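Kindly review these tokens for lecture notes.

. . .
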Amino acid sequence: MSPKILQPLILFRADATPAMGTGHVMRCLALAEALRDRAIDVAFVAAALTPSIAHRLAAERIDVHPAGDPDDAAATIALGRTLGANALVVDGYHFSAAWRQAVRSLGVPILAFQDLDDGAPLHADLVLNAAARPEETKWRRAAPAATFLTGPRYVLLRRELRRAVAAPKRPVAARSALLVTFGGADPTGLTLPVTAALAGVLGPEATLDVVIGGSVPNGAGLVDRVAALDPRVSVHLDPIEMAPLMGRAGLAVSAAGGTIGELAALGVPALIAIVAENQVAGAAASAAAGWCEAVDARASGAVATLAARAAALWADAPLRQAMADRTAGLIDAGGVDRVADALVSAMQTLW
């Protein structure tokens, strides 16, 4: 009898809460999709998930296991050994150096997302930062022996967005809506005041597509409040697919998180709001490329600034078209495959 060939498995460790947002899990989900396309099984271990994110993972038939205390590595190590994990993907800012060092005892390749330039040891074999410039060396202090996957070639797009990248894009002036999206949880509560301010400064020809993430506290109540602002507002609660909304957006007002890469990939000019320190570097790099403008939403008067700048951009279709044109070739649909290939290659060295 031939020996049973076990299907390789990659374990993901990430959390999602209203305070930290949902981006960590969502970009892990993009990578999980690509790994499954390679006949590699995936599982998640989490200390906290919002109901919306838990539902999303369940809909994808991805097993989720409890992690216990977020800074306790024991559950992750035990689960990795029980499942026979061939690699570990770690995404989050709340894992201490001691936690990261402890999970090395699994003896498998570790891919770590790194958005912060804090120099904390990552204890990883692969380090992913799609916002950093490939030539930058400051990120490498955290894992000097690791392979670094840096720059827009490694932006992770979910399957529905990868399909949309290849689709023809309408001229910006023919796109009817201004898209407002502050992520899956909108931890700083910008959706309502920014939409209200936009409704007050945009002309009657403008329509607003407002996305409210499924992990926003009391999202259903927020839907009613936003919808009541103006007849031009269409509210979308926790949409499964974002590509159709992005495709008809002549401008996006967005938080400066993972959505940046998605907007650039789909050719959407944007005004991006920095709401956290870890977004500063990525926002600056994106603005320097010329396809978006960045506003520090932590500053006083930021809502009024965002509304005024959005109104000026909306009134200048040629400028928005020039911004959209600068996204050409910036981000392709292959980033997630490049990351998956690098992780599989690291796994093969131990097989």
User: Anything to note?
Assistant: Confidence is low (pLDDT under 50) at residues 1-5.
